[in-house]
Amino acid sequence: MLAAQILINALVLGCLYACIAIGFSLVWGVLNVINLIHGSFIVLGAYLAWSLYQGLHISPWYSLAVAAPLFFAFGYVIQRLILNRVITAPVLVTLTLTFGLDLILNNAMIYYFKADYRKLTLTPPMGSVSIFDVVVPVDRLIATVAALALTFVLYLILRRLRVGRAIVAVRLDRDAAVLMGVNVNSIYAIAFGLGAALAGCAGVLMALIFPISPLTSTAYLGKAFVVCVLGGLGSVSGALAGGILLALIEGVGSAMIGPAHATTLSFVLLIVFLILRPQGLLGRKGFE
Amino acid sequence: MMAGFLLRYARLPSSLLVAAGLALSASAALAQDVIKFGAPLPLTGPLAPEAIKQQQGYDLWAEQVNKAGGIAVGGKKYKVEIVYSDYQSNTPRAVQTTEQMISQGGVNFMFSPFGSGAAKAASSVSERYKMPTIASTASSAQVYDQGYKYLFGTFTPNDTLTTPLTKIVKAKAPNVKKVAILARNDLFPLAIAQEMEKSAKANGFEVVYFEKYAIGTLDHSATLSQIKTQAPQWIFVTGYINDLLLVRKQMTDQQIKADVVSMIAGPAYQEFIDAAGPSGENITSAAWWHPAAQYTGKDIFGTTANYVKLFREKYKSDPDYAQASASVSGALFQMAIEKAGTLDKEKVRDALAATDVMTFWGPVKFGATGQINSLEPPVFQLQGGKAVVLSPDIIKQGEFKLGVN
Fold this sequence. Notes:
By secondary structure, chain A is mostly helical. Chain A has eleven helices and two strands, in the order ααααββααααααα. Chain A has helices spanning 2-31, 38-56, 60-81, 91-113, 138-160, 162-172, 174-179, 184-207, 217-231, 236-257, 262-276, and strands at residues 128-131, 134-137. By secondary structure, chain B is α/β, with parallel strands linked by helices. Helix content of chain B is 44%, strand content 19%. In chain B, helix 5 links the parallel strand 4 (109-111) and strand 5. Chains A and B meet through helix 1, helix 9, helix 10 and helix 11 of A and strand 8, helix 9, helix 10 and helix 11 of B.
């Protein structure tokens, strides 16, 4: 029974990790930008959900609808006004720029919200469901479903919509896309906006689960990074596979050799992947 | 380096330099009537929230002293000035800053940097310069057992937190036999967990689970599932507010219940109580001080109630042990300086060592190592959204309640 419980825990957590990582993966894959503001975007999304719930009693489920367009616009503007100026520069330049932007956003949040940890607690609490002694918390379950839905929506956008195909085209071959008449700057901004929107939505969902503070942004960023490397950059299904793999390693590792070494184990796995399979589990050049 | 610095600024207009010179000599003149206390703090970086608490504690004391005219030394009143310096949560820089403050900053006395690690690292600098130093947030005995003469501390050793807690559980919850301990793999939380293990074993409890979790752990579900299979009646978790909130949330998620759940060091903070909400009910904890304590002291703050009142007026929130310890450190310096009747470092050091006084913080007397040995830290339990003191008896407010669901 313990094994089943640990497996379920890991599956649910894996979907949450995928949700954290997917926007990061998209931006890295399409723009070749390691977006260090991603963690702070997630925290900002969590604060949005928290503020709407505390102030106006708006359920986090509705906050998702607020977060998506708001963060899309935020991301779009940041890309257009700031990031676009150095987008063709070597990756270290964009890395430094997003690092700087992250410092600004994170410190602004510390200034405005303080570093105190807050918690979004629904009243009444959602509780847990148990099936044959295996317990699954309802909020995590819903967050998992929402994470899967977001992933699916992104998949549909990339697969079915014209703008999605353009994003994939730019990712596959920037120069060829330009020759085909794709407005690359606009596609970059849209991809960055999508990445921010996914981060914001992830933040809303995480607000139900984790304590909220600007200080948690690095933890999210770290997970997103590992998930991307494990799953493969820019791939929607890769993020999901990477997230579940990471959660499984952490969960099983923590049960077998103790929680102190679970993180070590996940980073050992990261190194193994970087050496043996740098493209990740499902990473290919280009989307499906 | 200094020469380069001067060269770089040599191009500044000379009038500016003259003004700067005047300002320097003016502050030198003022310095005659001021006692400067150096306080290196991690004002930025991950420890920033703790530094802000320290700063609040020192500032409140300085404000009260200055309002009362200052510290009396040989018939003359000296104002207090706290000199802060940010060491960016970086311990080697804390040591450098301490040295700079003493050798160039002209401070009269020092407060240690935050926590046991940094306080220990900086204590050798204080010792070298024979600078009386009070550590307001260092509990580990290893900080004080270096044979240093100039270091004093207001936190009792870690075992003074776990032993009274174990005694209460043993006396009030005879059905509790099995204990599970989960510790953050970090200096203070791990040390507390190890003390807990010792005191649990010494009192006849069976420790069925003892594990450490890594700093920055985002998920405890696997660990908690394992703890659940052991069916412990007492779950003891150490960590900081974020860890403990997450563990508590995941305990509820996994429907883990126990007769006793203890957590150190979150419940002493109002933000933990606010964030945990109803899930905090009946969680026990211990801290070096609690605003519910009722001591009548001879220090500038007098009673604990008065300290809490002054703190609320200034900061619109309740103080916790971190802020109170900073304030009492200032008050202890003040009493020692007044008793010594001089700013002579050697004499103030001797006066500190001879301290035996009641304060709003509790009775203060330093042991041979410089660490306080007179304090009995309160054990408390969250009941109805409030912390209720269970021990020691002189400040007890309520009875221990069983059952955390």
